[in-house]
Amino acid sequence: MRTPAGHKIYGMGAEYPSAASLYEAAKMVRDAGFKRWDVHSPFPIHGMDDAMGLGKSWLSAVVLAGGISGLLTAVILEFGPSWGLYPLIVHGKPYDWRTVPAFFPIMFELTVLFSAFAAFFAVLIMNGLPRPHHPLFNWDRFSRATNDGFFLVIEARDSRFTEIEARELLEKSGGQHITVVHEE
Amino acid sequence: MDQSPTAPGTIGGGAAMTAERPLARVPLVLNRRNFSWITERISGVVEQPAPRWWWVCFTITGTIAAFGLFCLGYQISTGVGTWGLNHPVGWAWDITNFVFWIGIGHAGTLISAILFLLRQKWRTSINRSAEAMTLFAVMCAAIFPGVHVGRVWMAWYLAPVPNNYGIWPNFRSPLMWDVFAVSTYFTVSVLFWYTGLIPDLATLRDRATTKIKKFLFGFFACGWRGSNRHWRHYEMAYLLLAGLSTPLVLSVHSVVSFDFATSILPTWHTTIFPPYFVAGAIFGGFAMVLTLLIPARAIFKLQDIITPQHIDKMAKIILLTGSFVSYAYAMEFFVAWYSGNAYEKFAFWNRIFGPYWWYWWVGMLFCNVLSPQLFWFRWCRRNIFVVYFVCMCVNAGMWFERFIIIVGGLHRDFLTSSWGIFIPTWVDIWTFIGTLGIFTSLFLIFIRFLPMIAMSEVKIVLPEADAHFHGAADHHPAAAGGRERA
Q1: Interchain contact, B225 vs A82, CB within 8 Å
Q2: Which of A104, B263, B427, B436 is packed most tightly, with the most Cβ within 10 A?
């Protein structure tokens, strides 16, 4: 979709005066049936996921996978040398499976380490970050999204998006400074 | 804490309700500050030019740090003999310092992870700087065992990598566990800290005035734009990192205590060590958090964010963990007597009346057991000077405690023929003082260049951050007539 001047449209955004009004607006946009839209706030708003109709984040599954791979790494790392490469007898203690309690601390540490890496990289990858440039940064007012501004943006690629309908909905929900955001 | 103690519908109800209305919560951010005030005040610390006192402090701490680095260089190039270590005291100031610094780190993780899981919203004012303190403390800690290896260039032997000698480290050794625990702890702390920083770096990016600042903050903010689709994954990641850090932090000092507890030395060979060390770590760490934050909040005028209530709560945690530690001290003496073990009994008698007697009387008894008792009294917890005095006592006391455990255990062996005494050299002393300089220098750099308070998290604890907030009377019981306890 393009403006009369030929700019490609990213979407239409509105600013809201408070977290509560953004929350109410999000519920209206959700109920209107839009799919490609988002709200932007300087902090996570409790209950917003439900207001937007989003489910629970499945990032935890990635972290579980990370934890399991960490545990397996530790098992291989410790039993590999102990069983074949370098059996080490200390204090006359066994080095076969019966030594496993002494291996627990490192198994635990690597499980935590790999899980933490999984959580960190998953949050970036699942959010499509790092992404230094984004059409929303073309909107002057948008810099307040990291300070005290509350924004709602409906993307043009949403199948229901028309400029008139989006503007009407944003106006009805109490949006201010309603603006068409350009791609470039 | 953002919820009013009574249901919104009942506030301002009939006269009968008034008598039953519970005490209102004191707001976590005082004077009804709004979102942009928080942004301005915290970003302002980073954006304004460095005040003169900063340069004065940094010059002093930087000089001390440089001298510490010189001592390390001298020690590495000359040998471990430059320290006062000798038979029978093979671990002394170095390992004392290691345990001291690692312990300090624990308070940061407790604040950022455990208090998060426990929904203690007051943590948001202090978690960022406490986490930074953790990182710097662990850096200082890592210096000592690394250098104590003797031939530092051989330290890579600790890493389980295939090598052409075909040898592997002993994975059943607590010292090896320590390598894994401390390195995991540092890495996870960095990840957790950086994840928390991303939204605040985006704030600084959007406020940046120069091109280079815009580039640097923009680079590290990864293009964060406060999207709720992002916050959803972000909050899950934050929760999981907190959940992972919680057992991790408990494991780290437990593993540190295994270094001692798995030996057969009297006073070291005890099962009480892991919880005793963890409690001591949090005890000492909170004292260090307050030591850093009390001046910082005064200098940067952050009293509305780090309020007397925060200091009060931290003082209570010091009192609680100090009580754990006191209990552990008492239990050690009890078991020494009750076990009937002559060596154990002697070791504890020696702790009080032996050559290091004053370390125990001043360091452990006065600083760690007696001084926190002041925090039973509210006026002591609310008096900055009393709080600072106790924190200084605890900082020193926890160092003495580790010294007593380590050197006190080593200098009187089973055989009288191998008794000895430890005398620190100037290199010992200045290496330790040097790490104090490194620690404070890093902290000063941190408060200059990064937001020392988590802006995005402090904003959440304001009443108007709630999605159901509609006006002051709704969520402010004091405004609705509730009594407010300052």
Answers
A1: no
A2: B427
